[in-house]
Amino acid sequence: MRAPFVITLLIGAVAALVVIWPQAIGAHRLPVMASVVSFRALLSLTTAVLALALAVFAVTRRRWGVAAALAISLTAMSAGNGLVLAVRGDGPARAVAGDLKVMAWNTYGGSVSPQTIARVIEETGSEVVSLPETDAFAAAQVVGILEHDGVEMQHDTVWAADGGEPIPTTILISTDLGAYARDRLAGSTPGLPSGIWRPVRGAGPIVVAAHPMPPFPDLIAQWDDGLSWIADRCRDGEVIVAGDLNATLDHFAGHGVDGGDLGRCRDAAGAVGAAAAGTWPAGVPAAMGAPIDHILAGPAWTVDRFAVLRGEDGAGSDHRPIVATLSRR
Length: 329
Description:
12 strands, six-stranded mixed beta sheet, single chain, alpha+beta, 34% helix
């Protein structure tokens, strides 16, 4: 029984390494694995249950070869993924004032009412709001509600190029930040629309509302190109990216430069130890979800706080809203 045990254990050790840290061999952006690594908590729980079942089988049936080796390997997978999540953290930092509050919320095809969006914006005091899957009509309603309450915001909506998905992406920017205009030469993420807005007078943050394609097997190339597009936008230190990136910190590996997570931008959740909280799907506990919605900040900004808002799970979207507080360096 010694040979089967050793061979299985060696194979299991390699499999555990791939599952725990797929970016070590570039597997984090491969079909299937790209989706699997998004759900580290679920993966950790599943492998723990399988390890326990195999351990019981090995003890009760006295099968100390393959079953025992598999149990050890699965335990390592479970512990390794749990450790990664523990390091990334699951709790928001303490509330601070900061210089700028940024919010992102994929509204699931406009399933969240304008009244709810406006309420969350007011409650969080957000001045830059990225709303993937929200159209211009809903955005105008949100702005109208906010204006009635004394909050003035400008809005713009982009659509995918010909051949892309008929799903819009909207940005709201406080008029206190000055006038903004979309950079029409910057292009977009393929398949789904993203945009970049620059201050008209050249002062203030450069804002990117992003929504790349999901990492489905037949969309991997478009998804990876979308992440590359976002990384290229993060060359300027003033850039702030917000949206549903359909990616976790694991998928950013290889796209960061100069100490950034994606381009030169740092992930707000990762910066304050809140990168393990799941934002999708909203129908499962945040501890078991995938943290695929992000706010990224260029080198000109520091991250004071990041939070996944867990009180809006019944609002109609399959995503949770996220909010970050940023300050200028």
